[in-house]
Amino acid sequence: MPRIEKYARNGIAFLLAAYCLLLTAYGQTTGGVKGKVRNLNGDGIANATVTAHQNQKEIKTVHTARGGDFVLDGLEAGLYNIVIEANGYSTGVKYDVQVKAGKPRDMGANLILQVDRGSQVLIRGSVFYKDGFAVPGCEVRVSLVSASGAEKSLTTLMTGVSGEFSYRRPEGKATYRFTANFRGVTASRDLTVDSPAIYTTSVLLPIKMGDKQP
How many other CB atoms are there within 10 angstroms of residue 77's CB atom? Predict the structure, then answer.
């Protein structure tokens, strides 16, 4: 029995060694690419798909990590088109990327995806006095309202000469609160959006044009 166990252990060790050699040889004949996918603000885009194409065929696909990083390895040496896709963003393509055997080629952190305008929510609004006149130069605070009613401040806008303002967001159901503040007088309006489209809203201040503000 001891001799049989010895042979068995030797056999397993041999198979493991052969497997390791095979992996090493495979790694020396293949390569890949790595990098970081970001948006225009410099933030990493998580769960974006990165696909290597060659001769009009999809060779391999991986997904970016939480910070936008990825490693696409196991590619044979040659030229590839690297296609990057993410929900809410336009598709990005890097053409004729040279892959060599060995360590993955570093494509850096300049893989930038732009927001897909067709997948955005566009909100156009106006601020008026209660007698119907527009309020130019009015501050408008934009907040995200949760289901519990809690507010999260997103940004602050200023109305134009006709009392108008606009705000863009990626698609997705959400409720936004627009709070107008003009010389100490405030008013708010909530708007719920649920799909990419152009929405309109207005905020009515409880004063007339020319009224003395408190």
Answer: 12
DSSP at 134: B
How far apart (Å, rounded) are the C-alpha atoms in residues 170 and 168? 7
* pLDDT tens-digit series, residues 104-155: 999 999 899 987 767 778 899 999 999 999 999 999 999 999 999 999 999 9
Q: Is the pLDDT of residue 3 over 90?
A: no
Rounded to whole angstroms, how far apart are CA atoms 168 and 142?
11
| Rounded (5°) CA angle 88-89-93 | 150
Class at the top of the CATH hierarchy for domain 117-204: mainly beta
Q: How far apart are CA 143 and CA 164, in angstroms?
A: 18
| Per-domain boundaries in the chain | 32-112, 117-204
Both structure tokens of 155 = 């940004």
Measure the CA–CA gap between 28 and 45, rounded to whole angstroms: 31
Q: What is the pLDDT of residues 20-61, one digit of tens each?
A: 444 444 446 899 999 999 998 899 999 999 999 998 889 999
Strands (E), 25-119: 30-38, 49-54, 57-63, 69-76, 78-85, 92-99, 105-106, 111-112
| Alpha helix segments (H runs only) across the chain | 2-29
The superfamily in CATH containing domain 32-112 is Carboxypeptidase-like, regulatory domain (2.60.40.1120)
